[in-house]
Specification:
single chain, mainly alpha, 2 domains, about 70% helix, about 0% strand
């Protein structure tokens, strides 16, 4: 039985199926992962019983994803690097290229997501800077076995930047009508929205793992 007082972050940590439910209902389990399921559903005007029912189906179905709360910090860092950091530059560059093409070809149409390319360019620059800080400062410290208060500064900076990334994701949805292509959208336009949807899911899972699994353990003394 799902406890509605459970945080979104803890629910997301149970596996990909639960994260899929939260994503469908646009419940923010990364930057807003500290809120309880009940509080988040009330704020979003969602039917709590319906969301709980879907989460219970997901829990009963099980998931083949690892529960990273039970793995070592070192394993978690390596997983984040391989699963999220390495593919991200190519992924966001491909979506940005599509956005530039769509605006260039369809810019005169009322439905065109004008400003999306500039927004994605800003997101890319911020993300690349963020990944570099993690890879050059925080992650090497964690892999060297450092823990506790000495990491509070870098962790605080990373979490603040995660909040900025979360705001950028909301802006992306606003620019694209929640990734819903208009009837006249070409194949590139439709594929771009599908990739933006996937990029959002990856970024939310990435931020969730850091905010609610890795960082709390990094700050534990001894």
């Amino acid at each position: 039985m799902i406890d509605t007082n459970t945080s979104l972050g803890d629910l997301a940590a149970t596996g990909t199926d639960a994260r899929g439910v939260l994503l469908r209902y646009q419940l923010d389990f990364c930057c807003g992962g500290g809120r309880s399921l009940a509080t988040a559903c009330e704020a979003a005007g969602l039917d709590l019983d319906q969301v709980v029912a879907e989460l219970e189906v997901a829990a009963n179905r099980g998931s083949d994803s690892a529960d990273w709360r039970e793995r070592s910090v070192e394993e978690l860092v390596e997983h984040i690097l391989e699963r999220y950091h390495r593919p991200l530059p190519d992924h966001i560059d491909s979506v940005l290229a599509a956005a530039e093409k769509v605006e260039r070809v369809h810019g005169a149409k009322e439905s065109c997501p004008r400003g999306l390319a500039a927004h994605l360019r800003s997101i890319r620059d911020g993300l690349m800077s963020h990944l570099a800080k993690e890879e050059q400062v925080l992650f090497p410290a964690l892999l060297a076995g450092r823990r506790g208060g000495m990491l509070s500064g870098p962790v605080t900076v990373m979490m603040r930047e995660h909040d900025d990334h979360g705001d950028n994701l909301k802006r992306t949805r606003a620019l694209t009508n929640d990734f819903t292509p208009p009837a006249e959208a070409c194949a590139t336009w439709r594929a771009m929205y599908e990739e933006l949807d996937r990029l959002e899911a990856d970024l939310m899972a990435h931020i969730h793992l850091e905010n609610h699994v890795l960082f709390p353990r990094a700050l534990q003394e001894g």
